[in-house]
Amino acid sequence: MSDIVKKLGLNKNPVLTGLWQVADLERGGTELDREPAAQVLCDYINDGFTVFDMADHYGSAELIAGRAKNIATETSSVNSSDIRLFTKWCPQPHQTAFNDVKAAIETRLQRLNVETIDLLQFHWWSFQYPGYIDVMDHLARLQQDGLIQHLGLTNFDTDHLRVLLSCGHNIVSNQVCISVLDPRALQRMSEVCLENDVRLLAYGTLAGGFLSDRWLNRSEPDVIDDWSKMKYKRFIDSVGGWHRYQELLQTLAGVAETHGVSIANVASKWVLQQPAVAGVIVGARITERQHRDSNRALNELELSENELNDIAEMVDSLDRIPGDCGTEYRRPPFLTAAGDLTDHLEQLPPVYKVQAVPERSDRWIVLTGSEYEPMCGYSRAMRIGDVIKVSGTTATHGLQRPIGENDAEVQAVYILDKLEASIKALGGSLEDVVRTRIYLANEADCDAVSKVHGRYFGHVKPANTLFEISRLIGPYTVEIEAEAILPADSPPPVTSDES
């Protein structure tokens, strides 16, 4: 058993109680009555479900969980240290200063009524904004100060997990969607986690309740009115539709009948028996339905190798959810409860400011803060009419901090995020890119960097040239430049004096 599993308190019971549905129950604007809600969580604690997962935006979940821990510690034989409260922080791109981060963590501590957060899980909306590296630096400092016990991530994809690991951060977990409908995390993500002693906390394991006996042989619903099911119905549609989903349920039902358990038990245990998974998060609709007796059966259930393989074969036959972990929050198709998040993402301010070129009405430039831009007299990117040209770019964070030293794959990820942000500031997108050029210091990095390029541009397929050169200036192994052509008559970008 991984030492991280013990550190997180999941060695006795790997089922975390998820409190995201508190937000759904409170979406009318009225908070739940805290005392009876907390008492429900005390019942969970007394039944051995001592780990709770929540977030800053799950309504009053932090307040309820904090109160429950106090009640349980005072009235039962459960040790306070056995009750773990995991929460998340989902900042906006401008909340990267140390004081902003500290204030957010202090708010979490106050709401949970604890001195140290057991696990703080960090979510970041758009990786074009490199401030997530700064936020993680600040969280690590607060961890050293004793405000946080363990640091984790939530909905980070594999590439950006590797970016943070390359910065030396001690990350114990990444909370991502994993189920028989969505096995994305069981591929490259799991490999990286096992190599770096990171463990996965799986949510969506029961697909909002769709992976249960009550939906077996049921007709497709016309109306869905709770957020969780609205989200996972989109997953069902994406993997092949209602008919394929029912075939999957039939496979799970056959295994469940053999063991005398439920479909939900089999679906959860299949995820739990994956090597990189430390725990599964099962949502609690705390004022309505509780499934503790059923969830307790997971500790005694063990799927055979043949059963695991039979389920995997069925899973492999389904269409794949596009992208990597968390892509559904950042790029189409947006498989979220709210559906299309384009409006939300477009409301985020540009990463970089645009300046007009004096006395040239058809030219604009972007500066990204590199110390070389003013010294050498160049811009990160320039737009001339409908054409955008991006300078050769390295993985330099801020003025002069190299990212991913000696790791060309990590450097390529950081670079392409920077390129995308520069192009977006000038009114374009990755879809407008028509040419890229990649310069490598080592031919051995060709495959890794090319695969990163494919993950960003596989749907665009711009013209590309890759060079091996004698060396790059500074501690870098890769440099990339790009050109984009915007649709005719594209509007001019918004300059810094207009924003």
Structural class: alpha/beta
Termini gap? 53 Å
CATH architectural grouping of the largest domain? Alpha-Beta Barrel
Uncertain ranges: none
| Shape label | globular
Radius of gyration: 24 Å
Number of domains as seen in the coordinates: 2
Q: Please count the beta strands (DSSP E, at least 2 residues each).
A: 17
What is the CATH level 1 assignment of the largest domain? Alpha Beta
Which percent range fits the helix content? Answer: 25-40%
**Residue-averaged pLDDT:** 93
What do we call the CATH homologous superfamily of the largest domain? NADP-dependent oxidoreductase domain
Q: Largest sheet, if any?
A: 8 strands, parallel, barrel
The proportion of residues in beta strands is 15-25%
Number of helices: 17
The third-level CATH topology of the largest domain is TIM Barrel
Largest beta sheet: what is the strand line-up? 1-2-3-4-5-6-7-8
